[in-house]
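Hey,

Quick one before I head out. I ran the complex with flavin mononucleotide overnight. Inputs first:
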Amino acid sequence: MSITTADLLTALRQRRSFGLRNVLPDPIDLNDIALILEAANWAPSHGNTEPWRFTVYSGEARRGLGAAFVAAAQGDAKAEVKQRDKIWMAPVWISIGMLPSAINPEWEELVAVGCAIQNAQLMASQLGLASKWSSGAIGTHDLVAKFIGLEPPAKLLGFLYVGKPAGEWPSSTRRPLADKVRWVSE
Ligand SMILES: Cc1cc2nc3c(=O)[nH]c(=O)nc-3n(C[C@H](O)[C@H](O)[C@H](O)COP(=O)(O)O)c2cc1C
């Protein structure tokens, strides 16, 4: 191992999610996205099923995805405007798909995709890039899944958007670990 435990803990603590308002719309180097997805691909999965599936939308390709978001808003005028505009707020949108295997319960495949996104966000943070997993009703809608080409039993679990941070790198806190752990020795 070439990094220290202190370095690793720092990287874990500094991984951050950014609201879209804190992301710059400017294009980013897609080689960075390739690195982020390489990190994602090293996630663990039970039986090495590797159920994560990604599609990367950038540049003009975001227009079609934005239209799918608008369609998913299904006539709610206010929601439609919001969906139409938000796609341009981040330069890269990665759909987070889960393709289940025949050998594992679905929950294990979902957890494995979560591990992949953790890896992805750790790499994004290391690259100084802002990102967030967005998993709301629109980002997981059947119409959007269909647009991406994720048909059942595959599932759309939302999007990881990525871009340059608009301001300072935010910090965060966690509630005490002691409230979440029991140590049993005897
Ligand atoms: C499975 C999953 C789904 C999430 N979905 C959303 C979401 O839909 N909207 C949102 O604002 N944040 C979402 N987040 C990001 C969390 O809000 C964020 O991780 C949490 O606030 C902790 O902040 P941090 O990532 O900066 O440590 C999601 C995170 C995970 C792991």
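The mean pLDDT is 97.

Talk tomorrow,
K.
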